[in-house]
Predict the 3D structure of the following.
Amino acid sequence: MKCKNCKQIFNPVKEGQKYCFERECLNVWIKTEKEKQWKERKKQMKEDLKSVTDYTREAQKLVNKYVRLRDIDSGCISCEADLINKHDAGHYFSAFGYPSVRFDEDNINSQCVYCNKHNHGSLIEYQKGLIKKIGQERFNELELKASKHKTWTKSELKEIIKEYKEKIKNFQKKC
C-alpha cells in the first residue's frame, strides 16, 4: 500500500492505515485526525447551542418542503390552480396560532402564492378544498387537535426533522 503523504510503499499494521511511520507522515496523520475531531466537536457544539426555536424553524422548513413535493401535481388547495412555479405550503390553522397542528400534514397543503399571501390564505376556499381532500371526519379531528395546547420539545422536533428528511429522501428517490 502507498502512504497517503509520501507515496512510498509500506505494509500497514492495521486495517485502514493510510500513512507510513515516517515522522513527517505521522505528523500529517495526527494533524488530519485532530482536524477531524475538531470538526466533529464543533458540529456537536453548534448542535448543543440550538434553541427550540431553531429546531422549530428547521422542522417547519422540512415539513413545508415535503408538502410542496407531495402536492406538486394536485394544484392549489384553495383555487385548484396548477402549481407550476413557486408555491407555498399553506396552513389552514396558522403555524403560530395553533402549534398543536403546526406539523400536521392534514393542516398543511400546497397553495399558490396569490391565495396564501395576497388573499390571506383564502380560508373559505381552503376549507372546502381540505374537506374535499381529507373528508369531513378528518377535518373535524383536525379542528379538535387545533384546539389543544402543545409545546414542542427539542427531542420531539429532532424526531420530526429526522422523519421529514427521510420522507423527502424517499420521495425524491421515487421521482
